[in-house]
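ESCALATION

Customer reports they have been waiting on this structure for their group meeting. Please prioritize. Original submission:
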Amino acid sequence: MSHLPAVRFLDRATPPHILTLTLMAGLSALSINVFLPSLPAMAEDFNADYRLMQLSVALYLATNAILQVVIGPVSDRFGRRPVLLVSFALFIFATLGCLFAPTAEAFLAFRMLQAVVSAGIVLSRAVVRDMVPADEAASMIGYVTMGMSLVPMLGPALGGVLDASLGWRANFWLLAGLGLLVTWLIWRDLGETSTRREGGFAAQLRDYPALLTSPRFWGYAGSAMFASGTFFAYLGGAPFVGSEIYHLDPATLGLLFGAAAFGYLFGNGVSGRFSVRLGINRMILFGALITTSGIAISLALHLAGFAHPYVFFGFMIPLGFGNGMVLPSATAGTLSVRPQLAGSASGLGGALMIGGGAALSAYSGTLLSVKSGAVPLLALMLTSSLLSVVAILAVIRRARRLGVVQR
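Update from on-call: job pushed to the front of the queue and completed.
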């Protein structure tokens, strides 16, 4: 970033501080899971079936995936700053709607609108790519997601404490307060980073097929989608494995469940420190191979009769570690294909990750039974991780064939 002005916090004339970008993305992640321990209390309060309240997760993710496709192109045309400010203002409105919703159906409607906060994840990446080249972008994204990775570990625990102390609405008051804080930070610290394009929105749409027809974009997007799909499959199946197969109590399950997030934190640290030196292609390949090796060893041990919760959850650490290396660099790769469409690439790539991952998460739950043990879940995760390796190898092979120097 030596060609950019020195960063000064709360100064829109300089690049945004990494704290602002991290909080933008972190609030997007926190809104997914902070209230999950409160679902039983919410169902009772709304006098609704628990399965209806569970839709607050599925509907949110579905809306999130759709919005990620839309937010990127809109920000490429109209700028990152106005889209972020409008999105977070709508998020605050939706959160207040959740707080005062009279029925479960009204709550779910406002919950879907809350998904507009996905702009924080999409555009934090696009802002980074606006400022620096691909390798540096992977490094910065690694640091942003390293900070954001604390959210999946701490969010549900914090939500449970708030629910026990103040009731389920305390979680949404927390989200509303953080929404106000992050909106203020965006207003004060984040100036416009994208370059306005001539020719209107029609010109933007004419360029969009260039992104969709790029083999390199689909290679990077595929490596990210299948790597994250491995983790989403784990999220969908691990609770059943821990509670029904290994009979873990909730406290122990909660502790072991965070193993993947623990590995992800350190993988992000490696990505932040070494992406510029290694290059994004090698970083993705090494990360995907680490994930694949960890899952393969776990599957082999289970097939050999060494099924144990420490074996299952312990080998989720390399899964998280590998994903922490893959995802920042794969994201930077998708953004580098057409830099003028960085927002579009971020949105489409994010939609593929969430959409594909959510599908694997739902599917993993259908594979498991007490009799089958953890083997079907591990086999699904291994397949997804292997596809991530195949996707990045296709990118590397194509670059060599074309004589393109890429690391």
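Sent to customer with the following note: The CA atoms of residues 131 and 405 lie 22 Å apart.
Escalation resolved.
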